[in-house]
Each structure stands twice: as C-alpha cells, then as structure tokens.
Amino acid sequence: ISTGKTRSLTQNQALHKYFTLLAEELNAGGFDMRRTLKNDIDIPWTMEAVKEHLWKPLQEAMTKERSTSKVERKDYRMIYDVLARHLSQKLGVFVSWPSKENMKG
Question: Which of the chain's termini has less CB crowding within 10 Å, N or C?
C-alpha cells in the first residue's frame, strides 16, 4: 500500500497541458501516430492519444499503476524524464514540462 500523495490539481493540469503540447509538437514534426506507433494510416496526435499510447504504458511499466490519478506526485517527474529523453533521442522531439506561466492557452 502506497503512502505517498497522489497528484495535485496543479500536477493534473500540467500533465494534461504536457500531453497537449507534446501532441502538437509530434504533429508539427510529421510524427503522426502511424509513423510513431502503427504503419497503416495517418492518425494525428491528440492529448488523449499521448496520454493513452505514450504516457500510460510507460507509467504502468514504471509504477505498476495504470491510472494517472493514482500515481504518487514524485512519480510524474520520473515518468516525464524517461519519456522526454526517449522522444528526444529517437525522434528529435522535446517538450518541456509546463510551468505555471504557460499553463493557460
């Protein structure tokens, strides 16, 4: 049983903002879901697709937890670091974790 705190409202907002920004960057770089995940059809990235196909599988592998609302606060940085490093090395795509200043819009 975990005793760590789960995500805060700010972490939740930052997580979803990151998914949106990453989806935009992947699409701008020409990395549709087909090119990144499947070979058959062009599928643009969305916030939900980033969450389901990139973040959650990595999160589950690293924390054994599927729900983004149940991982501990400290786990977000660890998961982000691994995903950001992988996408940067493999695709040349990098999106910084959202700050309070860029959470709007």
Answer: N
